[in-house]
Design goal:
This protein has 299 residues and is of the alpha/beta class. It is built from 11 helices and 14 strands.
Length: 299
């Protein structure tokens, strides 16, 4: 288990991370979210022991993180860190050696991973001859060649088409089932919702929201009503408890102050014909994220 306890990080007078605490259990996918500059990268670097906290402590399986522990951690960075004049094989041999693996072990694992990521034919190709998507596959392989117990994924789907996003999703879930603890960071909230059971949202280095995703959604007061049928937008907006109403290409989306106002919308719809859909839905993580970040910035 990864445990981040009351961690603060200063760069001179600038506080990049402010009293942050969270835990990531075995076989758990944890979301670490925030806008650019929120403190995510600094947190990742402290977990990897690349920099030290100014205050607080980070442990993995009860041990302070040092070079012996980082051999059990994989890190896929948002920025590509590949040595582009190397071949795929040379690149993975290099990264594997950094994780204290012997050559035979690296090559055996590499063969399986190249097949899993459907790029076996690129083993002897130089990185700079590969597409962005295939470079991302190589970077992912470099992050898991050591079969990590803890894996940090920062924007893992960058440069991928929908088919390869599905491939990456399946690999991530396989790693989870095998026991890997995963920290997942992305600006795509729909991707976060697919994977993460727990999460933290950072603003200016400080947690503004944390907990289990299902609890966060249940506790968020503003709900959505989805309607398909013959209704008028102007009338929906006049219903008591309605915050906003919009018309999309195929349905109406109505935001209400809380679940208790659902019945007001229902009473209005009872007077209408041809209503083919009427459902109360949880807010998306993206809506909650925008709301909480906006509150933190005073917007």
């Amino acid at each position: 288990m990864l445990k981040v306890s009351n961690v603060t990080k200063y760069y001179d007078d600038f506080k990049a991370v402010d009293n942050l605490s969270f835990e990531v259990d075995k076989k758990e996918i944890f979301g670490l979210l925030g806008v650019n500059g929120a403190g995510k990268t600094t947190t990742f670097r402290m977990i990897m022991n690349l920099i030290s906290p100014s205050k607080g402590e980070i442990t993995f399986n009860g041990k302070k993180i040092d070079y012996n522990v980082t051999d059990k951690i994989g890190f896929l960075t948002e920025e590509r860190s590949l040595l582009t004049k190397m071949t795929v094989k040379e690149q993975i041999l290099y990264y594997g050696a950094l994780k204290s693996l012997d050559k035979d072990t690296i090559l055996k694992r590499l063969g399986k991973l190249l097949k899993r990521f459907e790029i076996e034919e690129y083993k002897e190709r130089k990185i700079n001859t590969l597409s962005k998507g295939n470079q991302q596959k190589v970077q992912f392989i470099s992050a898991i060649i050591n079969e990590p117990e803890l894996l940090i994924l920062d924007e893992p789907f960058s440069g991928l088409d929908p088919i390869n996003i599905e491939l990456f999703k399946s690999v991530i879930l396989e790693l989870k089932e095998k026991g890997t603890s995963i920290i997942f960071s992305s600006h795509r909230m729909d991707h976060v919702e697919l994977f993460c059971e727990k999460l933290v949202i950072l603003v200016k280095g400080k947690s503004v929201l944390e907990g289990y995703l299902k609890d966060i959604k249940n506790d968020y007061k503003i709900k959505k009503v989805i309607i398909e049928g013959d209704v008028k937008l102007s009338e929906l907006k006049k219903i008591k408890g309605v915050i906003s109403a919009i018309k999309t290409a195929s349905y109406f989306e109505v935001s209400i102050e809380d679940e208790s106002y659902y019945k007001n919308v229902f009473e209005y719809l009872k007077t209408k014909d041809n209503i083919t859909r009427f459902s109360l839905e949880q807010p998306s993580l993206e809506e909650i994220f925008v709301s909480k970040v906006g509150e933190a910035y005073g917007k």
